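MoxR family ATPase: structure, please.
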Amino acid sequence: MEGPASSSAGAGDDLPGSGSGWPTGPDEVRGRLEKSGYLVDDGLAVACFLALRLHRPIFCEGDAGVGKTSLASALAEALDAPLIRLQCYEGIDASQALYDWDFPRQLLHLRAAEAAGVADADRLESELYGRRFLVARPLLRALETQPCVLLVDEVDRADDEFEAFLLELLSEYTVTIPELGTLRAQSPPVVVITSNRTREVHDALKRRCLYHWFDHPGFARELAIVRRRLPGVTARLAEQVTGLVQALRAEELVKPPGVAETIDWAQALDALGATEVDAELAVATLGAVLKYREDVERARGLDLAAMLSAPLGER
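Here you go.
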């Protein structure tokens, strides 16, 4: 089962799935991502290019809803490669992320072998722990799928032990399955790791990666994102919603809205048939953009009419 080592993959190798070689620079990466509907700034374009060129994971950190997870989806589309997602959660361990054995099928096979009078214990054990009964979890699938984009989402939800395991895997892109041997990725997957910073992730994992902090975008860039994602929404409505969200972020909220909430709000208003928004409609639809009772109550106490009448980009 052992394959060629991946650490020797050259920076000049063909870009996964593109058929046209590696991007020549950050501008080409930016162009491919924008064709996928994802707008990037200079820093992120450079980080993505270096991640592809150097075979290093990108560690994306920032508030929820600022586009970290969608970067992985956009990269997969831009590279014409499948996206494999590992959603982290409290208590996740290596077996849940890497591989497991299909116990029900193993048990059925064992019973069938017994009924058929199979007495060769070594043969039976070899069959039970053969590839046909192996359940590949996201990390193993990423090592076996060439090419692919691996998204390790919300790693801050996992514990230190899982971080250490992930660091070891990403250092060599190798995994050993005792019953089957060692598997090495023929070429490293493109890895995007995200964190909402609910806790500090260990420095060792960050050092293995290229780091990028995701800020909330400015008015012009956020408006461009909304217009690109929701081309059917009127320009006036997109501008008003973007301006209101920018203003709400300046308030002391439990959870400031991200770009995802801006898009959700504009989409909700468009679904109501609105071509523009006033204070009354904004209050009625706050649930599309704010997700905490305290934040909704605070927003209701604001002068939304004045915020809507402020010059665009200065709210």
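Notes: The first strand starts at residue 58 and ends at 62.
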